[in-house]
Amino acid sequence: MRRIRKGLGLSQHDFARVLWVTYSTLSRWERGIAVPFGMHLQILRLLAQAMANPRFKSSLKNPRTEDPLFLLHQLLEPLYKDEPPRAR
């Protein structure tokens, strides 16, 4: 988790905002006192995969990356591009 956070160039406080958890929760995860699960674990897995993607890495240079929702959008957008449109 620390490797992902440092790869993104984020402080613990900022990375906690991206994951929508408190600083203390993130700190406990990084120290191995607790472990992420559910949505947070999935986001961490996606981030680990995305860090190897040059397109994602280049998107981190965008100043809007400081906005947690922008970062999550960059992460999740490729998952939805290949999805067929839903019938209304």
Can you offer a commentary on this structure?
With 88 residues, this protein is mainly α. It has helices at 2-8, 12-19, 23-31, 38-50, 54-59, 68-81. The chain is built from six helices and no strands. The mean pLDDT is 86.
Give the structural class: mainly alpha
Rg from Cα = 14 Å
Shape category: globular
Largest sheet: none
Helix content: 55-70%
Mean pLDDT: 86
Can you tell me the residue ranges where pLDDT is under 50 for at least 5 consecutive residues?
A: none
SS elements, strand count = 0
Number of helices: 6
Distance between the termini: 39 Å
**Helix/strand order, N-terminal first:** HHHHHH
Q: Determine the strand fraction and express it as a percent band.
A: under 5%
Question: How are the SSEs placed, and which strands pair?
Answer:
Blueprint: H1 2-8, H2 12-19, H3 23-31, H4 38-50, H5 54-59, H6 68-81
